[in-house]
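User: Before I run my own analysis I want an independent prediction to cross-check against. Here's the chain; please return only the structure tokens and, at the end, one sentence I can use as a sanity check.
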Amino acid sequence: MIFNDTNKYTKLFLGLIFDALGYVSFIIPGIGEFADIVWAPASAWLMTKLYKGRTGKIAAVFTFIEEALPGFDIIPSFTLMWLYTYVYNNKSKEETITVK
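Assistant: Structure tokens:
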């Protein structure tokens, strides 16, 4: 697979680039929404390659919808997924207490 051995900081860098590509549609008025027709499925596919499992699939659906709907391109979905995966999800694992 493409991103199997990618470390978390490389994923953050790639996510920032992919989010920036999503913002490109704001630069060219009128043409941007047509670019989203191509970018929405591409970004969903990239999300499933960066993040495996159920959360990656859910994030891909969210990313597709966010990119396909006009005006929602401002949401940095790749960066939010990175924060969820490496900041929020790690903290919740650390706070879990196992009882034997």
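Sanity check: The chain has one domain: 8-92.
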